[in-house]
Amino acid sequence: MNVRKTKHGWLFTLIFSILSLAWVFPIILVVLNSFRKNVCKAGKLCAGNGKNSVF
Predict the structure, then answer these.
(1) What is d(CA 28, CA 53) in angstroms, rounded to the nearest whole number?
(2) Which of 2, 18, 24, 46 is deepest in the core (most CB within 10 A)?
(3) What is the DSSP secondary structure assignment for residue 28, as one 8-state letter?
């Protein structure tokens, strides 16, 4: 029985794992930020570490 082995299977797995995490991360970030209580709106001043900063 001939079994074909991949030459760089672990490398492609690592690359595609990193790419998939980079693809999903912005979605997770938006979901997590949607549950925050103090959401800073664009154009308003927000308190950050004792200073006011524009978002």
Answers:
(1) 25
(2) 46
(3) H
The model's pLDDT over 1-20, given as tens digits with 9 standing for 90+, comes to 677 777 778 899 999 999 99
**What single string gives the DSSP state of each residue in the chain?**
---PPPSSHHHHHHHHHHHHHHHHHHHHHHHHHHT-SSPPPTTSEEEETTEEEE-
* CA pair distance 41, 10, nearest whole angstrom: 44
> Which burial class, exposed, middle or buried, applies to 52 when counting CB atoms under 10 A from its CB (0-12, 13-18, 19+)?
exposed
C-alpha 38/C-alpha 23 separation (Å) is 26
Which residues make beta-bridge pairs with 15? none
Q: Please tell me the distance from the alpha carbon of residue 3 to that of residue 10, in angstroms, as a whole number.
A: 17
